[in-house]
Design a protein that fits this description.
The structure is a single chain. It is globular and about 50 Å long. The protein starts with 10 loop residues before the first helix and ends with a helix. By secondary structure, it is an alpha/beta fold. Helix 4 packs across helix 5 and helix 4 crosses helix 8. The protein is built from nine helices and nine strands. The protein has two domains: 94 residues, Leucine Dehydrogenase, chain A, domain 1 (Rossmann fold); 139 residues, NAD(P)-binding Rossmann-like Domain (Rossmann fold, 3-Layer(aba) Sandwich), CATH 3.40.50.720. Strands 6-5-4-7-8-9 form a six-stranded parallel β-sheet, sandwiched between helices. Helix 5 links the parallel strand 4 and strand 5.
Length: 242
Amino acid sequence: LIIPAERGASFADLLSQCAKAGFDGVNVTYPFKEEALAHVPAGNAVVTAMGSANTVRFTAEGPRAYNTDHSGFVAAYRKRFGTMAPGRVLILGTGGVGRAVAFGLADLGASEIVLFDTDPAKVESLGAALHAHAPTGITIRSSADPADIRGFDGVANCTPLGMVGRPGSPLPPDAKGAPRWSFDAVYTPVDTVFRAQTEAMGADFLEGYELYFHQGIDAFQIFTGLTVTDPDWVRGIITHRP
């Protein structure tokens, strides 16, 4: 379903139209993930704490909001890195996907989460939400200089920089550091400037496509009530590799 912006419908109008049209649910993407919760009750406590949703399920009791970016990131991280602890992590961008990734890293056992955003209010909001959610031992700080990423085990790009139409990277060309791993939420394209920068520093890279894939599995389960027991089988169907 594509609804041209020229029609002038608001986000709330579109949700209402989709519900009336008989949709089982919708995926919500940038820049409406935080706005979604202003219109739809959260489907679980984590979504309430996170303040961001990317999946809305229409039910007989009314719409419910979920965040499969959160669960999808956790699944993607575990698939790529196994039981490796995230360590000390810098998150660049604290909007909708940044909130989901930050909560995912907290649930994965990150020892410290450092936030960077050009909007200080977003950093403060996410920091407060994480403090209320995160297990004991996690510290949340804000960073004013993304150029120096020395001392970080992981670095995550959760900004739109690098996607089609938004070229560039949140890291400056002279960024210094040696992270063990990196993640880019951008998946169109998969090969971004941020990826090249962090791989040149020696980081093992987690593609944004993997979050996209695993959140899709979780969204399917929410929409249908069915359980996907073998995500790799689904991957084979998508990539035409049995």
